[in-house]
Design goal:
8-stranded parallel β-barrel, 2 domains, 2,3-Dihydroxybiphenyl 1,2-Dioxygenase, domain 1, homodimer, 8-stranded mixed β-sheet, alpha/beta, 612 residues, pyruvate (chains A, B), lyase (chains A, B), metal-binding (chains A, B), isomerase (chains A, B), 17 helices, DSD (chains A, B), TIM Barrel
Chain lengths: 612, 612
């Protein structure tokens, strides 16, 4: 299938958009009329530039408010159409999108609509142009594809067909099943967009919140599968109106769009189209099975070492060639890298390691989905360690730790032992990591974790921070072996915004009470939880006086869902990083989101430690 | 009336919020439960701190999902209530807000709701506490105040009354008329919020887009008038959930909230409440009648002078004591101030002068509405010139130019004449100014122009800029003598955002064709409009070949509405500033918004002149 995108989906001038679209490897482009009007490129310049970039001009759009008008308006509309046909000829565009009429002048009369569209198609055909008629979800009389199809069939002109748009179909919850009855050659064009579920008017939702397939909550793949069954062989074309993409860098958005299409084609089971350089069918997702490590870049290793010791970690190794320490407890491993220059705000989470059944295949998939593969900076004797960059810059490594079939990255560390000689700690593994995303790259991040790593997105939550609402969405493997919480400011930041770009590593403890006692006994700084929280907890839950007393004494937070209970506490923040210690009791599935506002307020109240 | 505000309306810690609320001169505060839970102040600390700040704790809120539950849930809810009563006693709060039940467990049974609320009121009364029952617009069974009132009346307990919330009433478009039938002493509390008209689900709208009265589109004053007729004598209390206020500086938001209440009280015809220091009833609005001048701060005066000359302006004066030039044409006056240090990006619009029938009263009103009055920096012989700062920092001066009853500011300028000796120009006056607002102060600006200057807000528009959507809202006097267009980025900016903080001065010409020819003949730089724009204009409007040719030749843009036609063109931008030349033909009322995307694209395409 050819891959196409509408220019309105990207930011910048029309020339910038074409360059970005060509650079991302698309085959074609929809020219959005306003982009042309505002451009100082002539239609001929656009045609030539697109051709140079290997882009077909697939569609000129939109032509509005044409059909089913009183006869006195028709002449003016046809005059308008002739002007547009002339522009299209200069542009080399052979297909014009006509949206269903939204004007109050439109008449509810299918026969009239068909008659006038037939007339338009006749005129178009004289210019070698075809008309793709699309039902806007908010069309005045024609609001779904089945209705548009009745009109197109009634008109019965070879130059008149349908444009289907996944957003309009899903937004009105129209059953896509009837698409199968439409002959594929009467579907002239297919536009694709996704959107998060948001409770608002469909027009407002469409204009501001569309996103690329896989970033929202709609079943775009299901619709595409229905359309392909008809024999449709036109392009898959993305058409997204998104407030944030309008602001973002066009090259990056175009690449994200291409990632979305590749993942969509895979979902639909499409073989890859023609010989597009560098694009091959991605290997199947290699779902990670757990965390191998989390790596913190810190100006100096000692303060973090003290914190880890207080949690029961032992320093088990020092890297042979770099100032990196390995700290272990159970299967939880934390690397402290004091050789990185990239922590202006003090310690920051720079990398995570994921256990992969096949690290090389993991990297190949990431590469096929356009993730930047990181150059390997390792010594001649280091184990192979493959990594890609997540959208927020976090390095994601694919590991096989201590498996006989693969060299283990831990072999690069010279054995060493520093830490408590006392009883081993209760921490068993990394439960999850939480990463604050740049607010204008959240959709991209969500698609990355879903398509590249095969994680499943959970519900979006809103968390009130004292200085603004946060949006939070977790992605995880089915069994919870890998869980990542993605957080983002709900609206954009401004100069005076309080920085909450925190990152945290949540460690699972088999006995959080013991871990909390150990941590306190070491004199380490836990985040102080206000007494008011515990007063409210007693109002909400009757856990018995002893348990309430214990939670209060140790500063533990509490949550429950229908599957089980959740206990957790936090260390204070150093730089951008803090640790959370969690204990899941029963099958609790959440992340303690109900307690996040209390945590955030406590964090803002504390001066941040710049230790490490 | 007492003035109150809910802590949830502001950003920061509970301690910060109280300080801001006290500082803005409120009499009382609603304590939002989550703010208390997340605070390390004990309830007693909060009580003492509020008292120190002169704030009564008017309400503790919200208590959720209580009434009309099956008997087995009631005991747990009462237990929860007893815990909250204990907190309220420590807090010194005597009134608890109970929201109508939204839980699926709630039963649609008014008698049961009344019986359980009566029980709650009995328990509350034992602690000296009263219950204010509020219908949430999205309550499961109780969604409007009339229904809540039936239940309260049925319960018939002296400690049980109503809380009315203007948002819930206006959002569901419930007729407020029936409020007059409620005895004033059964209305225990009145919460106020406004909101812009947005087509979305009421819960989502309420949680994200509320704003202070006068900033949105609801008739809050009408509702307050209805409530006051009942004899209600509790506080007027603001309760606003707003994504942007959550991020903003709390002191500034609190002051904006107070400005909103003062303006609301004036609308309702309330005399001012108790002797709050510094707060007196504002003098009636003194509506400005026109623009006296626009002042541009520029590193050097010469390049701007050349531009003004090309437009037909003449330099008529030089300030006696400062490096400020006065340029005039008809009643259009532009000051070029090369003595200000505040133009790091080159020329910027620093001040506007408005013709006021009574400058001193204008300033008194602005002061009463909490606008910063600017210190007078003038020489001993200068005419009095009064000014306040608008929310975006623009200085707004109140003038009486060349009137016998008042010294004219123009008297401070020594007569001078530099400029074309040729025919006088066609420009008659300043038509409007357009100011880009910081995106997180748009609501504040809208209230400032409305309440302080008495301008009327017009419809909000969305303008697509190549690098993001802009929101634009004009405010004007009834006769259009003063028009200000406020523009703002639709979503927040980010580090990579393209700066579009442009400001412009629109000059009315009686013959724009002559002005355009004069400008071109002087070799001055007009903003180039793409040929594609004119191709489209011919498709949209049939103006005759000659007129289309003239528009294209002179780079004029065109619009029409049902009242008339609009012709305009732009100069290139220097620093942050450009000029627009406009001609209104017939009674055209708009601002040529349909052409703004073409203008914005052309501006981004041009390297900005740093001249001046």
């Amino acid at each position: 299938m050819r891959r196409s995108i509408a220019t309105v989906s990207l930011s910048g001038s029309l020339a910038d958009k074409l360059t970005a679209i060509g650079g991302a490897g698309f085959d074609g482009v929809e020219i959005f009329e306003n982009d042309l009007l505002a451009s100082d490129l002539s239609p001929e310049d656009v045609r030539d530039r697109a051709a140079d970039l290997g882009l077909a001009v697939e569609l000129y759009q939109p032509f509005r408010d044409f059909e089913a008008v009183p006869p006195d308006l028709l002449a003016g509309s046809l005059r308008r159409a002739e002007h547009k046909f002339a522009v299209m000829e200069r542009l080399g565009a052979k297909l014009m999108l006509v949206c269903s009429n939204v004007s109050p002048a439109a008449i509810d009369d299918d026969a009239l609509a068909a008659e006038q569209l037939r007339l338009l198609a006749e005129r178009a055909a004289e210019h070698g142009i075809r008309i793709a008629y699309e039902a806007l979800a908010w069309g005045r009389h024609v609001g779904d594809y089945a209705h548009a199809w009745r009109i197109v069939r009634m008109a019965g002109h070879p130059a008149l067909g349908l444009c289907l748009d996944s957003f309009h179909i899903a937004a009105r919850d129209v059953d896509p099943y009837a698409i199968r009855a439409i002959p594929g050659d009467k579907i002239f064009f297919l536009q694709l967009a996704d959107a998060p579920s948001l409770p608002m008017d469909v027009l407002y939702w469409s204009r501001h919140y569309r996103c690329f397939p896989g970033q929202g909550d709609m079943d775009v793949a299901g619709l595409v599968a229905d359309v392909l069954r008809t024999g449709y062989d036109g392009p898959l074309s993305l058409e997204v109106f998104n407030d944030i993409f309008r602001q973002a860098a066009s090259m990056r958005t175009a690449q994200d769009a291409m990632r979305s299409l590749i993942a969509l084609e895979e979902q639909v089971g499409l073989r890859m189209g023609g010989p597009v350089a560098g694009l091959t069918s991605p290997p199947r997702p290699v779902v990670p099975t757990g965390f191998a490590f989390a790596e913190i870049a810190a100006p100096s290793a000692a303060p973090l070492g003290n914190l880890l010791e207080a949690l029961g970690f032992v320093r088990t190794g020092v890297h042979a060639g770099k100032p990196v320490e390995l700290w272990e407890q159970g299967a939880a491993r934390v690397l402290v890298n004091s050789g990185s220059a990239e922590s202006p705000d003090g310690p920051a989470l720079g990398a995570i390691g994921l256990e992969s059944p096949d690290p090389a295949a993991s990297v190949k998939r990431a590469e096929a989905l356009l993730s930047p593969v990181l150059p390997r900076m390792r010594g001649p004797h280091d184990a192979p360690l493959d990594a890609v960059a997540a959208p927020d810059g976090t390095e994601v490594f694919f590991c096989r730790t201590a498996r006989p079939d693969h060299p283990s990255w831990t072999g690069d560390f010279a054995a060493d032992r520093r830490g408590p000689a006392a009883a081993p700690g209760e921490i068993t593994h990394i439960d999850h990591v939480a990463l604050t995303q740049p607010w204008h790259h959240f959709d991209e991040a969500s698609l990355f974790y879903r398509s590249v790593l095969g994680l499943r997105p959970h519900e979006s939550l809103e968390l009130p921070d004292p200085y603004g609402l946060l949006r939070s969405r977790a992605v995880s493997t089915e069994d919870g072996g890998v869980r990542v919480a993605l957080n983002v400011a709900h609206v954009g930041a401004h100069d005076g915004s309080h920085d909450t770009a925190w990152q945290h590593i949540a460690l699972a403890s088999g006995d959080i009470v013991a871990t909390a006692r150990r941590f306190r006994a070491a004199g380490a700084p836990a985040l102080a939880i206000p007494a008011n929280y515990y007063d409210d907890l007693e109002a909400r839950h009757d856990l018995g006086a002893d348990r309430h007393r214990l939670l209060r004494e140790l500063g533990l937070l509490y949550d429950r869902d229908e599957h089980g209970e959740f206990l957790h506490f936090y260390t204070e923040t150093t730089g951008r990083v803090f640790f959370e210690i969690v204990q899941r009791i029963g099958g609790y599935r959440g992340y303690g989101a109900v307690n996040a506002p209390v945590r955030l307020a406590a964090q803002h109240a504390r001066p941040r430690l710049r230790a490490g």
